[in-house]
Structure formats: C-alpha cells, structure tokens
C-alpha cells in the first residue's frame, strides 16, 4: 500500500472512531455527571438517553450562524476548523496496537507536543476575531495558561522519554511492554510524572479545574461567546477530541499502551484510554475552577519545579540504577 | 497537603454518589406518591341528576385571588332531566398558569360544581396550553381522580361545632366557664347587628355568632 493510501485509510478510520467515541463520551459524561449529582441525566431521547448526543448535534446544527459585526470574518471562520484539525492531528501518532499506528514518527513525542501546543492558536484566534471583550479576555487567558502549562507538560513527558531512550510513542510503549510500565516502576519519577502530565493535559485542554478561558461565571463563555451552530460544535468537538487524545497519550506514555497482563493489543489501549477519559470527567464534575492567579501559582511554583526535579531523577535513574532494576 | 486531602475527599464523595440511587425521578414517566389531599387541576362534575352542576353563580370567579376563573352564565331554562327551571353556564375557563391552587373556588361552591383533581395536566410547551377550557374541565370530571375536598363538605367541616348551633336558644348553658360575661356580651350584640339585614337566609346569624362565642376560649 502506498504511503498516501495508508495515511488516508488510517486517517479516515481514526477520525470516524474518534468522533463516535466523542459522541458516546458526551452521552456518558452527561449520564455520569447526573449520577454524581444524584440525578438521572438524559433519559428521554432513545433508550437510556443514548441518542442524546445526536439530538445535541441536530440542535446545534439548526442554530443560526451568527458572525458579529466588526468581527474578523476570515479568522472567525478559520478558528474552529483549525481547532478541530489540531486536536485530531495529534491522533496520528497514537500507538493503538503494535501494528496499528497511523504514523510511527521517530519524533512522535515532539510532534504530539508541538501540534497539541498549537491548539492555543485557534483559541486565541477565536478570542481575537470575535470582537467581543469576553472572548478576547478568554483568549488572553488561554494563551497565558497554555504557555505556562506547556512547560510542566513537556517536563512530564520527558520522564518516559529519558527512561526509555526513545522519542517515538510506539518505541516508548514497546520499551514498556518489554520492561515495565512507567507509572509502576520506577515509582518516583514515574507516578508523579503521570500526575503532572494529567494536570498539565487538563490545563492544555482547558478542562475543569483549569477551564479559565471559558469560565462561564466570569466570561460568559470565554472564547466561544460569539460562536453558534456548526462552528460552536467544532469547538466543542475539538475540546473533547483533545481530551480523548490526551488520555490516549497518557495511557501510552505511562501505562504501557497496548501492553497488558494477557493478550496485548488494541483492547488494552482502548480500555486504558477510556479509563483515563472517565477520570477526566470525574475530576471535571467534582472540582471547582481555580482562579487565574492560583492557576499560575500552581504551575510556576509547584508543577514546574517538581517537573524539573522529576526529569533530574529520571536522568539519575538511567545513569546510576543497577542494570537489573531498569 | 490540605488541598490534596480536600481534593481526594471531594473525588471520593462524587464517586460514592455516582453509585448511589438517584434522588430524582423522570417526572412524567414516574410520579412520586402524592399526599392524601394533593390537588392540582380542576374539573366541572355533574350533579346527582347527571347534569352539569354549575349554575353560573360567579361565586368562584369573585373569590379567586388570582382572578383566573372566567364564567359565562347561561340563560335559565327547564332542565331536560328534572323538568324544573334552573340556571346554566355557557362557558367556564380556568387559567392554570396563574392558579395558586388555594381551593377557595371549591370551598365557596354551594353546588359542588367545581372540584379539584389529583392528576396533573401533562407538561406543556405553550403558556396558552395551561388555559383549561370548558370541554377540558368537563372531561376531567370523568377522566381524573377527584381530590379530597368538595364544596359542601368543606363548608360543613368549617361549620362551628354542633354545641354552638344551639347557642341562640340556650345561651347560658354552652358558655364555657372561663369568661361567661365576655362570652355572652358579643353574642348579645350580634343579633342587634344582623337585625337590619334580615333578608339573609336563616342559618346565617347563627353562623356569624358562633365564632364570636368561640373566640374567648
């Protein structure tokens, strides 16, 4: 199969899988959130409300497409598309199983960080182009947040990279399946690094408790204030896909991806990804939003120093640990 | 450390709640058990002859605090059932959207012509759907379970105790021990006050006198 055909096939399948997972994820989130708040969640549309995401999408697509006066039309229209592209783009390097990788890049981790970090561009673009003070404030906050949290994210991801000596996501997973999962051993850089990654990923994806750019109680809806209909749907989708891909990468980097106690393969990767995805919801519907300054304090005073320390420990482990312990 | 502890406790709380039975139900599908005297909507029932009981006397319309009842009295004509002449009503509308379910209209109806029902109307999409028309109210009388109270019964239950009924005849006897002078005094003035309005039906003065006699106890 030609490289182009390979890419097209994997891309189509990945996008289809991602979008349907997001659809079911929305249903699950609403149901789970309902149960956490001691209510039922969606029950009317379809059996157990299973068709609720479909109803949501139909409703959203029916909405009038509004472009505010004075908005930068080109940027305004481009932002949601770019957001979706970037969030789906990271999925290209996901190692789903030993034989199922859309693009097994040598520098998969760098690619993932770069494209994931680009997510801030459409977010700020949307905030800037909306010609709305709330959207602009949200956009500014998003930039500040993403740049800050990029640092601990990179530091957290560096830990498995140093431990395995590979920049390829598939290589890291392969190393883990041959040796051990990084979240389990070595515990000290491994598990805290995962916690760090998880927090930074939530912040990058603008999820609660780090959803400062949206902050409904302060900024109306932040960068998405002026977006309606299909464009808002794209933003919504991008946010979910970003979280889903972030969960998948966390599973690959720290929990051995496709590796499992019996029968390694796709199912383990899917199970781990969904488990992390559920944790994201769980955190989202439990914790309150941090204030903007608390967010910065957490990042620069705590997470970044801890990240540096973890990288140093990982380097020391690789250098000095006895051969058998690796 | 406190932050981490609190975060973990919060996570534990939500997780525990997620696996507990919910405290809400899906309303139109599941209806919680209602109180014995639960009342929501209205009905215009028949009288004992199988005719609509309402005579269009407008008492309910006048007492309604939210003024949501609109009655259009009809012309008096001979009843096809009993052959006697009686009053009818042509139209009867209740705007449930502003009704406060005080049941005063039911209490004042001497004919038991308006009652409340236990079963709520289905949830509606338009405000206008909450205006119950004549046909709807008539249909409710046959389709829905009546609430606990109806006019004459509620009036009777608010009637003074049986002892008080003999009050005008044997005044000194029922007057309780605490303050015989205070009790007899208002009772004495009462007939004087109602004297000019003698045109009212007979039981009325007794009813009026009763609360005054009861008050001191």
User: Tell me about the biggest sheet of chain B?
Assistant: 3 strands, antiparallel
Mean pLDDT of chain A: 85
Q: How big is the Rg of chain A?
A: 20 Å
Distance between the termini of chain B: 66 Å
Taking pLDDT < 50 over at least 5 consecutive residues as the criterion, the unreliable ranges of chain A are: none
Give a brief description.
The complex is a heterodimer of chains A (326) and B (217). Chain A has 326 residues and is mostly helical. Chain A has helices spanning 3-36, 52-62, 73-89, 108-118, 120-129, 133-164, 169-178, 187-204, 216-219, 229-254, 266-284, 292-320; strands at residues 95-97, 100-101.
What descriptive keywords fit this protein?
heterodimer, A: 326 residues, mainly alpha, two-stranded antiparallel ribbon, globular, B: 217 residues, alpha+beta, Alpha-Beta Plaits, three-stranded antiparallel beta sheet, 11% strand
What does this structure look like?
The complex is a heterodimer of chains A (326) and B (217). Chain A is globular, with a radius of gyration of 20 Å. With 326 residues, chain A is mainly α. Chain A has one domain (63-325). The mean pLDDT of chain A is 85. Helices cover 68% and strands 2% of the residues of chain A. In chain A, strand 1 (95-97) and strand 2 form a beta hairpin. Chain A has twelve helices and two strands; from the N terminus they run H-H-H-E-E-H-H-H-H-H-H-H-H-H. Chain B is of the alpha+beta class. Among the domains of chain B are: 41-154, 2-Layer Sandwich (Alpha-Beta Plaits); 159-188, no CATH class. Chain B contains seven helices and seven strands. In chain B, the strands form three sheets. Chain B has a three-stranded antiparallel beta sheet with strand order 2-5-7. In chain B, strands 1-6 form a two-stranded antiparallel ribbon. In chain B, strand 3 and strand 4 form a beta hairpin. In chain B, helix 6 packs antiparallel against helix 7 (203-214). Classes of the chains: A mainly alpha (326), B alpha+beta (217). The A-B interface holds A 32, 34-40, 43-44, 282-283, 285-287 and B 7, 10-11, 13-15, 17-20, 22-26, 29.
């Amino acid at each position: 199969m030609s490289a182009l055909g390979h890419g097209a096939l994997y891309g189509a399948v990945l996008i289809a899988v991602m979008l349907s997972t997001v659809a079911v994820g929305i249903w699950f989130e609403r149901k789970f959130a309902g149960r956490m708040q001691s209510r039922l969640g969606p029950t009317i549309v379809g059996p157990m409300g299973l068709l609720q995401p479909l109803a949501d999408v139909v409703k959203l697509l029916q909405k009038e497409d509004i472009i505010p006066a004075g908005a930068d039309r080109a940027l305004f229209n481009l932002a949601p598309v770019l957001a979706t592209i970037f969030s789906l783009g990271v999925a290209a390097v996901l190692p789903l199983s030993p034989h199922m990788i859309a693009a097994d890049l040598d520098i998969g981790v760098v690619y993932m960080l770069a494209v994931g970090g680009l997510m801030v561009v459409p977010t700020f673009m949307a905030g800037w182009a909306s010609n709305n003070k709330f959207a602009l404030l949200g956009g500014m906050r998003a930039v500040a947040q993403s740049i800050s949290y990029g640092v601990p994210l990179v530091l957290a991801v560096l830990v498995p990279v140093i431990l395995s000596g590979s920049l390829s996501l598939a290589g890291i997973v392969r190393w883990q399946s041959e040796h051990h999962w990084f979240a389990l051993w070595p515990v000290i850089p491994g598990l805290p690094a995962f916690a760090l990654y998880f927090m930074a990923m939530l912040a990058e994806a603008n999820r609660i408790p780090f959803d400062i750019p949206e902050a409904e109680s302060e900024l109306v809806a932040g960068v998405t204030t002026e977006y309606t209909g299909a464009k808002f749907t794209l933003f919504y989708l991008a946010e979910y896909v970003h979280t889903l891909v972030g969960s998948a990468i966390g599973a690959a980097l720290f929990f051995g991806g496709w590796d499992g106690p019996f029968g390694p393969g796709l199912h383990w990767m899917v199970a781990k990804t969904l488990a992390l995805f559920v944790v994201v919801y769980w955190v989202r519907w439990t914790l309150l939003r941090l204030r903007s300054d608390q967010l910065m304090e957490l990042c620069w005073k705590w997470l970044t120093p801890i990240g540096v320390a973890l990288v140093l420990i990982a380097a020391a482990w690789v250098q000095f640990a006895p051969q058998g312990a690796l | 450390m406190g932050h981490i502890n609190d975060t973990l406790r919060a996570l534990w709380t939500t997780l525990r709640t997620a696996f507990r039975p919910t405290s809400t139900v899906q309303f139109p599908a599941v209806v919680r058990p209602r109180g014995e005297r639960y009342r929501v909507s209205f009905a215009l029932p028949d009288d004992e002859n199988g005719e609509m009981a309402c005579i269009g006397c407008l008492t309910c319309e006048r007492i309604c605090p939210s003024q949501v009842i609109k009655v259009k009295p009809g012309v008096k004509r001979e009843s096809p059932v009993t052959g006697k002449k009686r009053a009818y009503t042509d139209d009867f509308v209740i705007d449930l959207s502003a009704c406060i379910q005080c049941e005063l209209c039911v209490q004042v109806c001497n004919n038991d012509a308006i009652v409340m029902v236990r079963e709520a109307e289905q949830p509606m999409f338009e405000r206008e759907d909450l205006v119950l028309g004549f046909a709807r109210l008539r249909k409710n009388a046959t389709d829905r379970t009546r609430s606990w109270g109806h006019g004459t019964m509620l009036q009777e239950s608010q009637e003074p105790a049986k002892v008080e009924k003999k009050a005008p005849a044997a005044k000194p006897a029922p007057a309780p021990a605490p303050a015989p002078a205070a009790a007899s005094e208002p009772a004495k003035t009462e007939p004087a006050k109602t004297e000019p309005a003698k045109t009212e039906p007979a039981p009325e003065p007794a009813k009026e006198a009763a609360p005054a006699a009861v008050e001191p106890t």
